[in-house]
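Dear colleagues,

For the upcoming journal club I promised to circulate an example of a predicted protein-ligand complex. I picked one with FE2/S2 (inorganic) cluster because it came up in last month's discussion. The inputs are reproduced below in full, followed by the predicted structure.
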Amino acid sequence: MRVNCYNTRPMPTITIDGKPLDFEQGQSILEVANDSGIAIPHYCYHPSLSVVASCRICLAEVWAPNPRNDNKLEPMPKLLPTCQTPAGDGQVVYTSSPKATANQKAVMEFLLTNHPIDCPVCDQAGECDLQDYAYEYGRGERRCDTEKITQSKKDVGDKVMLYGDRCIMCTRCVRFTQEITGTSELYINGRGAVEEIDVFPGEGLNNELSGNVVDICPVGAFLDKDFMFQQRVWFLNKVPSVDPLTASGDNIGIEHTEGKIYRIKPRENQQINQFWITDEVRYGWKFVHDENRVTEMCEDAELIAADKLQQASKIALLVSPMISCEDAWCLGQLVRSLDEKAIIGIGPVKVVGDDKTFPSGFTVRAEKAPNARGVQRALGEVLSYEEWKQQLSNADTVVVTGSYPEAWDTPEIGEDKTLVLIDTLQNALTERADIFLPAATWAEKAGTFENCNNVLQTFERAIQPLGDSQPEGQIAMNLQALVDDMEATIFNAATIRRRMADAGVAGMREVELPKNTNRVETDMPLSEV
Ligand code: SF4
Ligand code: FES
């Protein structure tokens, strides 16, 4: 028996499917089960939303001690919704007793009465609760001989489509717009068998977090227009990453296959982004595969760049707030080894409006750069962009890093200077550059970003760098090797973090790798044709 840390009272205990479990007062039976890895089917319950107990699939048989009968265990007269019933000391719960199983089968049969069962053409197939529970708890045949009630597909927002036929009326999406965004675009229209989810006339579901309804919809009713019919989810690999566009540090997963990103999903982090991401982050990865990407490097470009840097009498380095701490540090090491008093500045940090906080506490960040603080942590004292531009006239060789997801406020570099440009997309400086070295985007490398609250978080590489592009850290290491006439080593973010920590950069030793590195896998066997 465990004892609560703050007093000596024993923790309350509940037994679920024969397993005795400690719990905190206030937890529901479903929450205790979830915490212990006991699967109880559920649709309408979501940990961040109010409890409505409407879908009825989580019902279980509950026995509880009766204080009026010498605390003898007695069964509750009906099955109870585990999502809504508080766990009680001494309760015994059966989630797969004959009564509970009969209810699960009945709920599934009821939900599938009007469902089109169009899994072969549904994007949600492979990650659909309805599909999974139909396998596990369903009956396998339709006994109802009435015509199915059909509903039309609705274009309800710029980013999402609603396939009303597939909806099981869990109301998660409606509660999301009421409780998380406070925008209430969605509502239930009609009653009974013909009720449907809809938007108010003239109002689209277009708030900054609209894409999250696709994630919380337990079936394929809400679909992401951008991902629609693009890829089957069981072919996707999922790599943990961090928002590369803003200072939020929101936790994301990059889902990709065969070198191509297909979608970005949020990863749960209650301290940072709860369960959500903005549409800006969800759809902001397109620059990785943009046709304006420059991924080719001229022959001997690195050799020429190393030569120019060695000959320089004064070097200026502009480090972009879009690149990782490790990349920034490697560039700083290279430039300072050649010119101790190099002019080092941070690139422009775009700010759009003000931070916007939703009723749930989720905040959309106005600062549109993921690592302004991390770059300064890695490099120590650096000049602001404006200061750097003012001192630029003193330099004869300039190294500029960009890696912005769109056209950026590039500096004027006089023709009298040698410009080494390390960037991803074509921009005003690409033509001007004397040497262009293609950089890898965040999805093509590992590293660390520091968010607006000074939280350092690592991200992993999702896809191979495109063409000749490389992480800025690798480019710096290659140039250093050429300068020192040594063999180049492979850039490894973890190794660089250790070196940074050894060099006294605070916080780098404590940075943890992201949790949740599972591959998205289907449990359906694939057959070779
Ligand atoms: S659209 Fe999805 S989330 Fe909304 S009520 Fe229907 S099933 Fe639930
Ligand atoms: S999850 Fe409990 S009733 Fe829906």
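Two points we might discuss: Residues 13-107 form a domain with the Ubiquitin-like (UB roll) fold (CATH 3.10.20.740). Confidence is low (pLDDT under 50) at residues 517-526.

See you all on Thursday,
B. R.
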